[in-house]
Write a structure and sequence with these properties.
357 residues; mainly alpha; Outer membrane efflux proteins (OEP); two-stranded parallel ribbon; 2 strands; elongated
Amino acid sequence: MKKLVCLLLTVTLLLTISATAFAAETTTALTLNSALKRAFNTSITLKNSQTEIEKTDQIYKDASSTLQYTPIDISFNPNDGGPFSYYYSAEFNKRKAEKEYDNSRRQLIIDVKTAYYDIQKYEKKIKAAEVARERSQIKLLQAKAKYEVGLITKADLITAEAQVATDVADLVDCQSKLDNSYSDLNKLLGNPIKDRYKLADLPQVTKQDIDVDSMVNLAAGVSYEIWTAEAAAKLANHTKLFAKLYDVGDYSAAQEDNKAADARESIRKSTRALCFSINSLYEKNNQLTEQIRQGQENLKVAKAQFAAGVITKDNVLNADYALKQVEAGQLEVASAYEVALDTLYRLTGKLSTEPPK
């Protein structure tokens, strides 16, 4: 156990040195708006979506031209409906590419915000983990002193050592997740994976009056997911006449109709849950904000008592850890609120497809 504790402490020390080096290199603040603008300019997904629009437009024009010179008279055989199937499919793919492009732009906003706020979340969690590690190290020193004079058992000493190992492991885990969050943001921005920033903006929690039923109906009518499912069903019903086996065409159309109905109900269910989640997150944020005020006062009192010699350093660290835990939780809830709100607006078509100016 002692070897494990020493190893984990060494790893933590190395990671702390690395983190300090990164911090020293950080000179430029990165605002959320700057990150969004950068992502819109460099996104491979958006570039591919633009290319898809151009490609499907060319195919649609070719299909339209082909259909224009396909005669329909008394001798027309549905089995010869290849040009019609080609046209309807090309029209569907063209419109889908355009819809997907707008949806990808909205989703990019959500993805950037998620990665941006995740960095701040893990920075907060690291601060709490560092306090927890310091606290357990102090308690281990106390345990060793007590053990030497016979006040505690060997099992108590091992428990203290295990707590140090646990807290060190938690710190290393948070540092690893922070690095992953930076990697996620850098990928979205098209920047080198090792780039680090001083993030300037925190998530904002502003009360929104959400009419659940209106939002559910709106999402079920205009969301990208619903449009795709319904357009696919419409395509199947258009092209079933040209199927080699008529019954197979009917079966395919029926399957797409069922998928569209299922997609509509799924969107209604998920949107409803999202609305209630947003309201819940708002109230949870208010609760944690009050707990932060309480934690700040508790820490202030603990520091005063420590200065007066009434309590020991580990008691101060208890109050400090409790505060930092709540601060990390509040930031996590606030970011979840903002991302959930944007997700709702994406589903209802209210989220802008343009980056901030």
